[in-house]
Design goal:
Blueprint (H helix, E strand, L loop, with lengths): L2 E4 L3 E4 L15 H11 L5 E3 L4 E6 L2 E7 L5 E3 L9 H6 L6 E3 L2 E7 L2 E5 L10 H7 L9 E3 L5 H4 L3 E2 L2 E2 L5 E5 H8 L3 H13 L4 E4 L10 E4 L8 E5 L2 E5 L5 H4 L13 H18 L2 E4 L7 E2 L1
Parallel strand pairs: 9-10, 10-13, 13-14, 17-18
Antiparallel strand pairs: 1-2, 3-4, 4-5, 5-8, 6-7, 8-9, 11-12, 15-16, 16-17, 18-19
Family: Belongs to the metallo-beta-lactamase superfamily.
Pfam family, one: Lactamase_B
Protein name: MBL fold metallo-hydrolase
């Protein structure tokens, strides 16, 4: 069994997320968060009051940055297809530990940021970048998994772009679908993408992007939802909103999934892909520190 290292040299025993079962007794939110620390990716070093976590994969340094200011539980009501009996058996009646996360990859002299969080007054992404001595203008590429506000919100502040030099990459399927939505639904997307229009690149799934990043189709949560493969890392966006539930029950959707059939298919596919290819998954709503293997 590997060790899980936290700041302050606190070492916890760790289990792999796949095959990790729930317990029957009721748990507090604090206890559930402690469990997630012990069960996520076993090669991660947590830092800065659980704001950052680092992982090295070959020559690639990956840093998880937590955007949410306080601990986060996805409410039980978000998963109406899950039975009470199942939630009770997994001790998830009070909610499912989660996060709002972004990921920074540093490789071959490039800094690549995957999603940007909410951009709320108490969001912590910028604090995380600052603690890494990374300025917004240091970001070379922004890879966007989809256009929900908790993924593109950090691209703008006070009506201005936050990342003045970053090239922005998003799927054409996602862009085209949002541009056809009612004006009130697409307003944030339209404003943000127009602000970056001179540096916005719309790709097709399977294109090779800078840094040898491969965008892979994962439609369902949104019409152009994208998973990115970078070496042995798989940035999975919003495939999971409640990993402790959905890892063993991918057929259960969160209400946020726009196309349930597509979301289920994508979850099942990438769970199997991760197992077969030995990749580490990095998810925007996985529990702290948002890596799983």
């Amino acid at each position: 069994m590997k060790n899980y290292v936290m700041a302050g040299a606190v070492v916890l025993s760790a289990f792999l997320f796949f095959g990790c079962g729930g317990q029957n007794k009721q748990k507090t939110e604090k206890e559930m968060n402690a469990d997630t620390i012990k069960t996520v990716c076993t090669r991660v070093t947590l830092q800065k009051d659980s704001l950052l976590a680092t992982l090295t994969l070959d020559s690639m340094k990956v840093t998880w940055i937590r955007d949410n200011a306080s601990s986060r539980l996805m409410p039980r009501t978000l998963f109406p297809d899950a039975t009470d009996a199942l939630m009770n058996s997994l001790s998830l009646q009070e909610g499912i530990p989660a996060s709002v996360s972004t990921f920074l990859i540093e490789c071959d002299g490039k800094r690549m940021l995957f999603d940007t969080g909410v951009g709320a007054p108490d969001s912590r992404m910028m604090e995380g970048l600052k603690s890494l001595n990374v300025k917004p203008e240091d970001i070379d590429c922004l890879f966007i998994t989809h256009f929900h506000g908790d993924h593109i919100g950090g691209m703008m502040k006070d009506g201005k772009v936050v990342f003045p030099k970053a090239e922005v990459y998003a799927s054409k399927a996602e862009y085209d679908a949002w541009m056809k939505m009612p004006a009130d639904k697409r307003a944030q997307v339209e404003t943000t993408m127009n602000a970056y229009k001179d540096r916005l690149h719309l790709f097709a799934f399977g294109d090779t992007l800078p840094g040898n990043v491969l965008p892979m189709e994962a439609i369902g949560h949104t019409p152009g939802h994208t998973v990115y493969k970078a070496g042995k890392l798989l940035v999975i966006g919003d495939l999971f909103h409640g990993f402790a539930l959905q890892k063993d029950h991918p057929e259960i959707c969160a209400q946020y999934d726009m196309d349930k059939t597509g979301a289920i298919k994508s979850r099942k596919y990438y769970l199997q892909y991760a197992r077969e290819n030995g990749v580490v998954m990095a998810g925007m709503h996985l529990p702290v520190p948002a890596f799983a293997e």
